[in-house]
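Input sequence (218 aa), recorded before submission:
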Amino acid sequence: MWTIVRIAYRNIRRHGRRAVFLAAAVAFGVMMITLLNAFTAGAIDNIKGNLASVAGGHVFVAGKELVDGRREVDRIGDDEVLRAAAGRVQAPVQSVHRRSAVFATLIFGSKTTLQSIEGVDFADETDFSSGLQVLEGQRVFGAETDPRALILPKSAAERLGVQVGETVLARLTTVTGQQNVGEFRVAAGVGELLTAGFSGAYASPEDVTGLIRRAPAG
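Predicted structure, token format:
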């Protein structure tokens, strides 16, 4: 009889240890899942914030004008009609900004890369400027204090082999279809804002607009 009791007691103790180990394993698994979910949620929120600062909820309007009543150019001279239309939109419009944009070939020494350049008024678009992930260089931008400054994605800077403070040339096509060349100083290197790995470069709207509307010298 006592032999049976001892065997039963040993079995109970053995199963008890197994239960403790099983409970510990389950608790560890739950903890890891919770941590993973928290990390994933944080990463998703960060990505959503980055995308929202670039294009989330944004409406981009591009237009053409007739010059001399017959030739089209890619520009919007008078934007009062568009601003009035934005004021009549039922959904709340947080802000309206004007930008100039162009695809340019950046040149540094013997290296070139195709890069979009947008003219951004950083004094006006404070939410956008605060969302830039500045990896190197200056963190405050403004055409008044730093003309010809170019904020360049770090990947583009690496392709060119250019450092902050050095000068690059930008070869582009004006709104009238002519070729033009401008000069920019790399003021900062920023992280990619788009998940596709392609992000724009940024300069003052005066600099970009001046290049795409100006007739080349000579």
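Checked by second reader. The mean pLDDT is 76.
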